[in-house]
């Protein structure tokens, strides 16, 4: 039994490159998931039966089917319909689609927690529907759901490790290569475990701080 | 002759994969529940050092990808301990440990949801710490923790799909095999996705029924 993490030193650059790719994919996917999540949340709380139904089916499907199945569906399916995307783009797309379902849950509860008086006041003031959404509903719902959004982002980072299954060399995929180069899988994956834990810990700290800062007037 | 058509045998393969997924899910859920509850007991009894260690390990398992844990166990452990591990054994170890970590978190918050004064009252009445847990804390904590547990189980079912990456022939792996042979990704992955979806709904449904029974004591029964 040997445990010698020092042999990983020459490979730290490779791991850092993988970590950068993970961070990039997660940042893009977060943007996509937020956009999608807000739209879907608005649909789920809208006064239109068909919009609610479509949005609910989307959330139901993407929350109850494993991410790796969704990923393979897109990775192998998209070229069939002549949409040729790189592994990276497919991965970001899949992460955004899956993340959007979870984001919409969070935003939806943010919208439902809105004080009805605020909406009524906006309506009597003669604001248009669009203005109410644009200036009142979305900003307030986003602001009060920063912390749960942080939790969704943490999950997104953890889920992004699955992108290694479609040949993308992000942190996990890069680590696989390092492990087969060094014959030290235990050291590599133990380090990886700590790296992911550190990343997600930082994200939850940051989202908690941001949440407190933006909601300081509510306390 | 080309073998890119679906055959009756594929259905058998699919069912076999489904069986592997379900049995691994069931086994790791049971082991995870037992381990996680034992883990939470360490905290309830305030065992020094071990309780803090358990909290740290749970935090690490919660905050790292299951895929990495799977690789650590499947590729790392055999090298470190100079043994052999089959993919199924590695999957069992990893998923049980992962489930246990989440069960620990749910159990701890469920135990804390029971008011302190109830525990103090029970102590004053001369109940031992175990009796307090068994008769006062556990029934209420079970009702409280069942909702989060349902969410966890639905999630853990999806997590089982990751074991296909280390070569366990579960439902996802069967999907990958059929996909490569027939080159009909839309049909294959839709069927696989649908099977997972139906299983998830089944789990949610069964758990919801059990939760109603657990909460029956606090429900309005009419006059």
| End-to-end C-alpha gap of chain B | 74 Å
* Overall mean confidence score, pLDDT of chain A: 92
Seen as an oligomer or otherwise, the chain set is heterodimer
**SSE ordering of chain A:** HHHHHHHHH
Q: In percent terms, what proportion of residues of chain A is strand?
A: under 5%
Major β-sheet of chain B, in short?
none
Which consecutive residue ranges of chain A, at least 5 long each, have pLDDT under 50?
none
Largest sheet of chain A: none
Structural class of chain A: mainly alpha
Count of beta strands of chain A: 0
Q: How confident is the prediction overall: mean pLDDT of chain B? A: 91
Based on CA atoms alone, the radius of gyration of chain B comes out at 21 Å
Radius of gyration of chain A, taken over Cα atoms and rounded to an integer in Å? 21 Å
End-to-end Cα distance of chain A, whole Å, is: 54 Å
Overall geometric form of chain B: flat
Helix content of chain B: over 70%
Q: Please work out how many helical segments of chain B DSSP would assign.
A: 8
Can you describe this structure in just a few lines?
By secondary structure, chain A is mainly alpha-helical. Chain A has nine helices and no strands.
């Amino acid at each position: 039994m040997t445990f010698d993490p020092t042999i990983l030193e020459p490979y730290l650059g490779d791991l850092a490159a993988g970590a950068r790719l993970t961070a990039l994919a997660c940042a893009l996917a977060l943007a996509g998931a937020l956009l999608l999540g807000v739209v879907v949340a608005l649909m789920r709380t809208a006064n239109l039966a068909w919009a609610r139904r479509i949005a609910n089916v989307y959330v139901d499907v993407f929350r109850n089917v494993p991410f790796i199945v969704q990923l393979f569906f897109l990775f192998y399916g998209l070229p069939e319909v002549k949409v040729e995307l790189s592994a990276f783009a497919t991965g970001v797309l899949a992460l955004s689609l899956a993340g959007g379902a979870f984001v919409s849950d969070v935003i939806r509860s943010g919208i439902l927690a809105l004080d009805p008086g605020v909406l009524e006041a906006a309506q009597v003031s003669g604001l248009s529907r669009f203005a109410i959404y644009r200036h009142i509903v979305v900003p307030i719902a986003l602001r009060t759901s920063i912390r749960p959004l942080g939790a969704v982002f943490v999950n997104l980072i953890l889920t992004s490790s699955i992108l290694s299954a479609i040949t993308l060399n992000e942190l996990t995929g890069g680590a696989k290569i390092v492990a087969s180069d060094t014959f030290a899988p235990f050291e590599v994956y133990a380090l990886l475990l700590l790296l992911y834990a550190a990343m997600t810990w930082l994200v939850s700290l940051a989202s908690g701080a941001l949440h407190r800062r933006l909601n300081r007037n509510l306390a | 002759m080309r073998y890119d058509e679906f055959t009756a045998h594929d259905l058998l393969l699919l069912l076999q994969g489904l069986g592997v997924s379900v049995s691994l899910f069931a086994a790791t859920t049971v082991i995870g529940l037992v381990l996680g509850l034992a883990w939470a007991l360490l905290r309830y009894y305030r065992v020094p050092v071990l309780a803090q260690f358990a909290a740290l390990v749970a935090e690490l398992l919660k905050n790292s990808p299951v895929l990495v844990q799977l690789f650590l166990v499947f590729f790392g452990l055999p090298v470190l301990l100079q043994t052999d591990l089959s993919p199924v054994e590695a999957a069992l170890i990893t998923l049980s440990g992962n489930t246990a970590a989440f069960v620990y978190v749910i159990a701890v918050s469920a135990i804390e949801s029971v008011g302190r004064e109830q525990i103090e009252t029970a102590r004053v009445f001369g109940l031992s710490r175990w009796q307090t847990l068994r008769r006062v804390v556990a029934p209420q904590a079970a009702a409280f923790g069942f909702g989060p547990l349902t969410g966890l189980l639905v999630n853990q079912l999806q997590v089982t799909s990751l074991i296909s990456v280390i070569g366990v022939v579960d439902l996802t792996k069967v999907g990958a095999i059929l996909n490569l042979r027939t080159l009909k990704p839309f049909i294959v992955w839709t069927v696989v996705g649908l099977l997972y979806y139906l299983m998830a709904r089944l789990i949610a449904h069964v758990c919801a029924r059990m939760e109603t029974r657990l909460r029956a004591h606090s429900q309005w029964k009419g006059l």
